[in-house]
Amino acid sequence: MARNFDLNKGERFSLGKGDELSKIQVDLNWDSEADLDAVAFVLGEDGVILEDADFVYYKSNTRNEPYDRARFGSKANWRNNTVPMSYDGSVLGSADDFGGEDSGETMHVDLEKVRPEITEIVFCVTIYGNETFKDVKDPQIVIVNEETGEELCKYNLKEHFSSETAVVAGSLVLNEDGEWEFEAIGKGYDGGLQTLVDMYT
Question: For domain 5-200, which architecture applies?
Fold first, then answer.
């Protein structure tokens, strides 16, 4: 299988069957002083989430550790010290990165935990405040074999964004042969996070 493969918009990279590669690291990188957030949507065949927890974002109440008042105190502290998790535990979100040079967020996917009714996992980035993606430099999404640290493929978003405040960077798609592929998407939207929620829920 080819490695370090640079994708163009619309291209796909085959990850093979789950027994060949199970744990994926998804790095969403950018250079911006703005507050950007990485989110994921775990979708069924109809292109929408099947459970609320399949919207994996920083404020989600489905986390990688249960809330324990004795340990965390407030729920705000719990959210700040855990990461969001999908309904089946297959996708772990990122801690919040508040911007700066060489910023970014990382998500983790365990393909062995993805339940059978899931056919796509979409990775997006949203921006807050008065900035738009016109102000974001060098956005990219990198797919890494988490078990070996080997970079599998990378997509540099070269689109000329203007007023967009949400971008669908790429997705993991289950093909007809039951193999996972990464697809480079790079499509921007106005309306921020709410636009993505309206699309996928």
Answer: Sandwich (2.60)
